[in-house]
Design a protein that fits this description.
259 residues; mainly beta; Jelly Rolls; 2 domains; ten-stranded mixed β-sheet; five-stranded antiparallel β-sheet
Length: 259
């Protein structure tokens, strides 16, 4: 008798759980238009997901502000160039005037000369340049590093701040009270460098809450979990030309999605 009652209770519990799961899936489907199946697996998509908007018109630098000595539009490309006549003593940026960004995804393509050094800054602020006081476009903040020799491309480097937060291949935890802690690896540093080409490369940055990730050509280069209470939670987006020999870097297809 007791066994029969226990079995009935168990069956009722399973039935209620099953009905609850079906109800939850129905509500989810109504909200999203998508019903998950056991056979589903993550997949690549063609193009961008909805919500991205353009940041660059391909014709002018409208919406951006930087020193025209170093930045121009050339053949539809945002071009940063240092010549023998314009060698700099401090890094300088061109800054997007779209305002401070907090949680977002950013996509852009870049091409850089072999001796070039650049980077995409985000959640950044404009700071005083004591080396070159006339430089009104110095920045401090997170940076997806880019260089022509592929030594640093993909790193998370905080310009004028906490410096190396993650190298290529790292998943790190940052607290601000010690060196960044290596939690795991997304791959070997040198092997990941092989996915960066001498031609055009596609960057995908995601900054959400205390976590940021850098992906290049579909390969996750690094991820940072930042629990430093003094971290920048929002800020400007900018692009760098770096101290060093003559160089050129080109960008195209800028787009952003706020979250």
């Amino acid at each position: 008798m007791m066994s029969t009652m226990a079995n009935d209770t168990s069956r009722r519990g399973l039935l209620l759980a099953s009905l609850s799961a079906v109800a939850a899936r129905t509500v989810f489907a109504q909200q999203t238009g998508y019903v998950p199946k056991q056979s589903d697996r993550p997949e690549k998509i063609e193009g961008d997901e909805p919500g991205f908007k353009s940041m660059f018109d391909g014709k002018t630098l409208n919406g951006w502000e930087g020193d025209p000595k170093y930045w121009r539009v050339n053949d539809g490309l945002m071009t940063g160039e240092i010549t023998p006549e314009t060698i700099i003593k401090s890094n300088t940026f061109i800054i997007w005037k779209g305002g401070e960004q907090e949680d977002f995804e950013l996509k852009v393509d870049f091409r850089i000369t072999e001796g070039g050094n650049s980077g995409v800054n985000y959640r950044s602020v404009v700071v005083e340049d004591k080396v070159t006081p006339s430089n009104k476009f110095a920045m401090r903040g997170y940076q997806c590093d880019i260089d022509g020799k592929k030594r640093y491309t993909g790193n998370n480097y905080e310009e004028k701040g906490r410096l190396f937060l993650a190298e290529r291949g790292d998943v790190t935890h940052v607290t601000g009270t010690r060196k960044p802690v290596l939690l795991g690896r997304t791959g070997d540093n040198k092997e990941l460098a092989n996915f960066v080409t001498d031609g055009w490369n596609s960057v995908h940055l995601i900054a959400r809450g205390n976590t940021s990730s850098h992906t290049i050509n579909g390969h996750l280069m690094c991820m940072v979990i930042d629990d430093d209470p003094n971290r920048l939670k929002k800020g400007l987006i900018g692009v760098q030309v770096h101290v060093g020999p003559p160089m050129r870097v080109e960008y195209r297809n800028w787009r952003i999605k706020q979250m």
